[in-house]
Write a structure and sequence with these properties.
Number of domains: 1
Structural class: alpha/beta
Order of helices and strands: HEEHHEEH
Helix content: 40-55%
Number of strands: 4
Radius of gyration: 14 Å
Distance between the termini: 17 Å
Strand content: 5-15%
Amino acid sequence: MRPNVDYTRQVVQWARATGASVEAELGHLGGGEAGTEQQQAEAFFTDVEQAGDFVSRTSCDALAVAIGTVHGVYRSEPRLDIKRLQDIYNKV
């Protein structure tokens, strides 16, 4: 995660100088084409502790997290980890 922290922190500094905001991403937002099982997909979910550490170290304005969402069309009923989202919210 270290390079991502360093890069994001630098982008935040550049953005602040111009009045822009920064949305960073942790975890993996799968593509609809992936077709993985839920257990396998959860391995890519954003870690709650890591999210808190990342936001405090980078000062990003928004954080895109992986909780079971995908880019594109859902091929089956999504199972979103709302508890994880709440835990991330509470942490950051």
